[in-house]
What we know:
The protein is α+β, with helices and mostly antiparallel strands. It contains 3 helices and 4 strands; from the N terminus they run H-E-H-E-E-E-H. It has one domain (3-142). The protein has a two-stranded antiparallel sheet with strand order 1-2. Helix 1 runs antiparallel to helix 3 (109-142). The protein is elongated and about 80 Å long. The two termini are 25 Å apart.
Amino acid sequence: MDFFSSMNVSSSALSAERTRMNLISSNLANANATRTPEGGPYKRKDAVFAATPLENGFNRVLDRAAGRDVRQVEVMRIVEDQNPPRLQYDPGHPDANPQGYVAMPNVNVVEEMADMINATRSYEANVTAVQAAKSMALKTLEIGK
């Protein structure tokens, strides 16, 4: 894997983790939103990641033949949680049903915070990988001095 391939892999991971962090932020911000334009309470969103080939063409064929099938991460789609909303008894709420229950978003704040820590650590690991690749390239340039 050359310098630019490692940078491409890490940059794709940075972009994917940024998308994941944006979704987590949206989930936390809407943890109590009982109305959406689609109707009903907010539904938790999550990113689906996939490993995809880094590039097409001759370089990819050579890498595969050499046993270096390099893959980058990509956000394939964003999915909504299909679990039913959480019912909370609050007869005074404007969105309460006739029995006094309000359909609340299916967002677990503790789970979202754990996911946020995980996304942050993954982002930091990929920043470190980019810095290491950059450092290696600079050291290589110093050989000729």
